[in-house]
């Protein structure tokens, strides 16, 4: 009887750890592919018009791609602006940091507070308070992307793992 309970508890713990890794590994994989996609103009030495066209169309759905706001690497613009680059790199960096570490449960208030620097930067540059800065855009994007990633993964884990625990009871 005791051995059966220990085995059941062990199986639940192992299932929870595997589920957690899967929940974290899938977004990490997606973010890596997504990041490689938007920096591909700087990575590829040969021009492929079809690839360029397809990727430009894909990334144009999530970013305005205004060339003056895009980071240039090896005389090629990235396919997203500096702010979007920061957001995606912030999410990717955070996903790498938290693959095996526990993620704190974040409240929506933390997400809203973390978005304030980014919103303030957007408002200030739009109203002409100061000139657009790629460095500020990347930094505010990094912070926002990292917090958004933590919030979303925390919510996904709570949803799927609580569902899994209820199923095992």
Task: Flag low-confidence runs.
Answer: none
**How are the strands of the biggest sheet laid out side by side?**
1-2
Shape: flat
- Indicate the percent of residues in helices: over 70%
Say how many strands there are: 2
Strand-residue fraction? 5-15%
How many helix segments? 5
Report the structural category: mainly alpha
Encode the helix/strand succession as letters: HHEEHHH
How would a textbook summarize the main sheet? Answer: 2 strands, antiparallel
Radius of gyration: 20 Å
The pLDDT mean sits at 86
C-alpha termini separation: 17 Å
Short structural summary:
This protein has helices spanning 2-43, 49-60, 82-97, 108-126, 134-168; strands at residues 70-73, 76-81. The chain is mainly α and 169 residues long.
